[in-house]
Each structure stands twice: as C-alpha cells, then as structure tokens.
Amino acid sequence: MVRGSLRSAALAAALLASPAGAQPRAERGAPSGRGSIGVHVQVSEPKGEFGRNTGNGVGLAGYVLLRLDPNAIANVRGDVAFLTYGSSTRRIPLSGTGGLIQLDLRTTSNIVSVVTGPQLLGPMGTVTPYATALGGFSVFWTASAIEGSNNNNAPFATTTNASDAAWAYGGAVGSYIRVSNGRNPVRLDLGARLLRHDDVRYLNADRVREAYASDRPPITIRGRADFVTYYLGVNAIAF
Q: 28-49 burial, b for 16+ CB within 10 Å, e for fewer?
C-alpha cells in the first residue's frame, strides 16, 4: 500500500512538472523574447571601389527584433544606422575683418541606412549565434557648416554639398552573449554586417579638398558603395 502511494505521488509530481518542462525555449528567455531592442556602436570598412575612394567610418545604430514562432528561431528585424565616413575642419577668416574673426568650416560625409529582413537564431545558450538577410535603402550626403571658433559646435550657416539615395541589400552574422537573466534578459550583441549599393553618388575627402581649393561646387563620384560594419552593443528583451 505504501508502494502504491509512492507511485501515485511520483506520477502526480511528473504531471505537474510536465508543462514547465515542455515550455517553449522562447518563454525561457530566448534572445528575441517576444520583442527586443538593441543598440550598438560600429566601425565601417569600405570595400572595392568605395574602399579605394574613402576610409573607415564610425557611427551608431539601433534595431527592433520581433519573434515570429514560439521557439524564437524565426524573427524579423528592422535596423536604423548612422555612419560618418569622412570629416574635416578648416580655419578661415571672416571677410572684411582683416583676419581678426576666425571661423571654422566643418565638412562631414555621412550615411543613414534603413533596412529590414528575417533573422534566424541558432542553438540557444550562453552564446547564441544568428544570421540576418537585410534589404532597404541608404542615404549618402555631405554637408558643410560655418561656426565661430568659440561657438561650441553651434553653426550659423550650413549647406548640403551632395546627397543621394540608393537601394541597400546584404546581411549580418553575429552572436548574443548572455550577461544578465531575469524577467528582461540582457545580452551583448557582437557581429558584422555587409551592405551593398549598386549605384550611388557621394563625395570623398579628395573631392571636398578640390572644391575648396578651386572655390567651386564639388564634383560627386558615382559608382558602387559597399562596406562592412563591425559592431558591439547590447540587446535587451522589451516584452
């Protein structure tokens, strides 16, 4: 009779524990949760023709990740990234002041990319790999601003020297590295992203320098613009 009671108790315990054991891995804190957000810093490495014309860039990016299936394998991701790949400052005198008033002429070349696509997660653990296919568009522009040398980056005149938009496509690979558990897990996000642009107009440091020296509008470069960004940031489950 005692054995029968023990067997019944064991069976009841197993039945009670089975729902938790069968819980989808997404509910156990998969990197995407139902929805997560991420931010990261990035360094770019231009490739091909773009690499011959420009140098490395730096910037910031953010994204939203939404789970599509109960096991958090399939997700959809939307990214917005800002990158500066060129910057220069020249000290120039204000006309008519005999050189007593000095101004700073700042020129920056930038890229904003808005892309989205599916993201697949690998086996979940302390380190969870992922791969993403991305498509969208990028805007390339170069702008110049004039400010007083003591104005603390407060320009009083700005001009967009060149701008263009192009379709962007590519992908990213990376890994989430768990650093905090709990209701809203936090993970480091380490990876690399390739974006390609088949035909876009842009300026580089040489074209900006030539325009300044000749006192005429800059002449844009037209062609491919492909680059890889290496990023490190944080991903946190939002809900």
A: ebbbbbeebebebebebbbbee
Q: What residue numbers bound the domain in which 218 lies?
A: 2-237
Give the rounded distance of the alpha carbon of 102 from its chain centre: 37
Termini Cα distance of the chain: 49
79-88, 147-156, 188-197: the lowest-pLDDT one: 147-156
pLDDT class of 20 with cuts at 50, 70, 90: very low
Q: What is the DSSP letter of 127?
A: E
3-state secondary structure of 155: coil
CATH code of the domain containing 139: 2.40.160.20
Counted domains in the chain: 1
Burial of 66 (0-12, 13-18, 19+ CB in 10 A): middle
- What is the C-alpha R_g of the chain? 26
Whether the predicted pLDDT of 154 surpasses 50: yes
What pLDDT score was predicted for residue 182? 67
Supply the pLDDT for residue 200: 97
**Is the C-alpha dihedral spanning 199, 205, 209, 212 positive or negative?**
positive
Contacts (Cβ under 8 Å, ≥6 apart) of 152: none
**Mean pLDDT of all residues in the chain?**
84
Angle at 182 between CA 176 and CA 188, to 5 degrees: 20
